[in-house]
Amino acid sequence: MKEQIIFAKEVACSGIPLHSRYINEMGKKLYEKLQQIITFPKVRSRKWLSSSFPEELWNSEEAYFSSAAYHMRNLLNPVYFQEVTECLPQNFSQLKLLLMDC
What domain of life (predicted)? Predict the structure, then answer.
């Protein structure tokens, strides 16, 4: 990506990738903390294309809200990033990603 003049940065994660089974053991504790932080789940914006769920589940209750359960699923499961990029319009020019340090 850098060769194409696209900003890209390696995320320091001690060799343990997010969205993988390798972080499952921290799931329960993290979920409890997320519930303390996200006390009132909010409806996701229509512009927010979820990579946590396949498109056919975007309107399910768990996918509809930005909640502790939503973000836990995002962290502990594979994501559908490639599938989401296929939903973008042809003239799409900007993509925002939220990346987290490990």
Answer: Eukaryota
The answer to whether the CB of 51 falls within 8 A of the CB of 79 is yes
Question: What is d(CA 77, CA 53) in angstroms, rounded to the nearest whole number?
Answer: 10
Of 39, 80, 88, nearest in space to 57 by CA? 80
On the question of pLDDT at 37 being above 50, the answer is yes
Domain range summary for the chain, segments of one domain joined by +: 17-85
Second-level CATH architecture of 17-85: Orthogonal Bundle (1.10)
d(CA 52, CA 80): 6
Q: What is the pTM of this model?
A: 0.68
